[in-house]
Amino acid sequence: MTVLKTSMRNFLAHKGRMALSAVAVLLSVAFVCGTLVFTDTMGTTFDKLFAATSSDVTVSSKDASEGGETTARNGRPPVIPASVVDEVKRADGVRAAEGAVFSTAVTVVDGDRDSLSPTNGGPTIVGSWNSNDARTMDITSGAAPKGAGQVMLDADTAEKHGLGVGDELSVITALGTHTAKISGVADFTVTNPGAAIFFLDTPTAQKVLVGETGVYTDVSVTAAEGVSDDQLKQNVLAELGGGYRVLTAEEAAEANQKGVEGFMNVMKYAMLGFAGIAFLVGIFLIINTFSMLVAQRTREIGLMRAIGSSRRQVNRSVLIEALLLGVVGSVLGVGAGVGLAVGLMKLMGAVGMELSTSDLTVAWTTPALGLLLGVVVTVLAAYLPARRAGKISPMAALRDAGTPADGRTGWVRAVTGLVLTGGGAAALYLAGAADKATDGSMWLGLGIVLTLIGFVVVGPVLASGVVRVLGAVLLRAFGPVGRMAERNALRNPRRTGATGAALMIGLALVACLSVVGSSMVASATEELDKVVGTDFIVQDDNGQRLSPEAVAAVKATDGLDRVTEYKWTEAGFTTPDGKTSDDTAITAVDPTYAVDMRIETVEGKLADAFRPDSMSVHEDFAKDHDITLGSTVDVAFEGGRTGTLTVRAVTSSEGAIDAGAMYTSIDTLARYVPAEKMPLTLMVLASAEDGQKDAAYAALKQSMDGFPQFEVRDQTDYKEALKDQIGQLLNMIYGLLALAIVVAILGVVNTLALSVVERTREIGLMRAIGLSRRQLRRMIRMESVVIALFGALLGLGLGLGWGATAQQLLALEGLKVLDIPWPTIAGVFVGSAFVGLFAALVPAFRAGRMNVLNAIATE
Question: What is the pTM of this model?
């Protein structure tokens, strides 16, 4: 009980100092809990949507079992005959059955030809309005579509784009463009996360989406009263026999959930990873806080030991304080996490993904995990300072000798840190020398972990040398004040090392990702200059294929010298060695592709691969299957027949563009795949006539005005788009890393604040002999800047090493240019100095306000 009272008294006596550490715990726990609440809420939203929109049993084509990939390649959804509806109705336990048609391989534009597709990556769905939809949606204005000239849309899409009854829309599919006027607006009875949904009447949907009547994409089946979904499914299967995909409502919801599960898992684990980084940085803050508090209470601990307190009791007292800190920070963090989740929902709403707070999901495991993590991390971080406190002897403490110093500890730390760093450097070397990216990535991960731990361990040893160099370069110009700031930073290398290490982690990741991102852009740019010989590229950024109408518009453009179509389809390969290859795709192009793309070959000429019944293979494929020029490969084309093709060229397996591709001509593909099953064009390459590039570019853009889903780019545009995509990804990562930087700043603030308290009497004496308040504040600011720059140097050095090694692995995938973004690195270094200045504002202000006489009298 006495230990508990002592711990409570000490905890409450240092409220301000504990608050900063509690904020670090709070932020880390909030990020973990916020991530879990946010992703759980997303899951709940989709679960409710899929449960509400799934009929008791759904019947569809077997081809639809792979997520509708057939739709993406030939532009038409897989269908089943309308007669299936009558067959299903004959099954026992069926109350009703209704056919429907829908497709996601569509683009819808308004009267100004602006795309209505979601900007959040959600699907655009066009389907037939039926009773199953009427069960889950309410028509809020107008009426359901009747006839070819009417279309209805969901309320969210109507609101986002300011659309209403009477406005004109155009539905663009592989079969052409269909124009209709809005007849009504319908709202979901559950939350629509962000899909754009449009409804036609059934005959029109069949004509527009499939091109024929008498077929459906699926049949919705409703069970009679008292019949379970599972029993209904068995009855339907018994009536239909094989050849169809039959799912209960639960199975359909699970299948749909898998479609979004990957995206949610990537988001969830990425955010949790950044939360883990913030926790790691927070550990240094907590260790520093308790180390300094123990040092400041040396005499008090000596008195406790002198009157009978054991080492265990002293140790326990410090750990109880850490437990209190962890509990307070974690409880507040859980609450803040829920608020963060709501904020993320609002942010996602701003970019088009709607999530309702009515679906807010806080599972009991979320606060439990937050509390467990926060308390365990805090107590573990405080263990070393608590252990050192227990080692203080009563006599040494009463003489105010501080925590025991052990010369061997410094040597052990230095040797251990150097061994870990050396092992990490060796692992990074092996990663860079690896022949396969998969092997090298394991060495890279090991090297990052070992070098990071090594730098953390050896940080106090490095602090002495690095701070002296920084002091000589930056602080000597400030005279005695600069020298005092340098000595203060050197006074406790362990403290300086731990504070700098907290900043080091975040900046190391920033530097590494900057190098990787910049190298990717530089490598891709070089590869484009080296390989791409065409002037223009027409494609959809979301992977949607070009309709024949769009391809025809490109070919009809004035000023173009040649146009090359690029198709891709699934295929199976049986090689001369009798093996069936794991490679499952073949690229079909026009013969002019050999001119438009300077693909490197190791044997033969690429142009020969476009002769009838010919193909190319990549070098690795040829080596694995002992293929040479003239060998034949049996190719089973998806949706068509198997053909025997002769290998006329072997291309390099390296390169960032089309690495590992196997080519044939579109004419050869058409010989084995019927016209209705031919894949649509994935991309079109176009080149201008001599001297007509600018005019052809303008004409091509004008030709594609009617197809807003497709982008027309020249090589400069393509490079800029690539740079923007990588830049947006890096900016998002930097934003998440900002959490770790914020926690690191709190660490600097806490270290300085506690350092000021520790040096109260010293500060009073300096003021007494003539040091002004302005000079005192400058001294503390300079000390903070040196600590921040020390952490920045370590972090940037580590990050550059990690990034350069990662680029060596990317080189194995064709991205061979190492580009170090020196302006970014320099900006981060200079920014670290401002971080140090910002962190010192409050401690410096408080130090300047100290009463000189009271400070001198402090013991």
Answer: 0.78
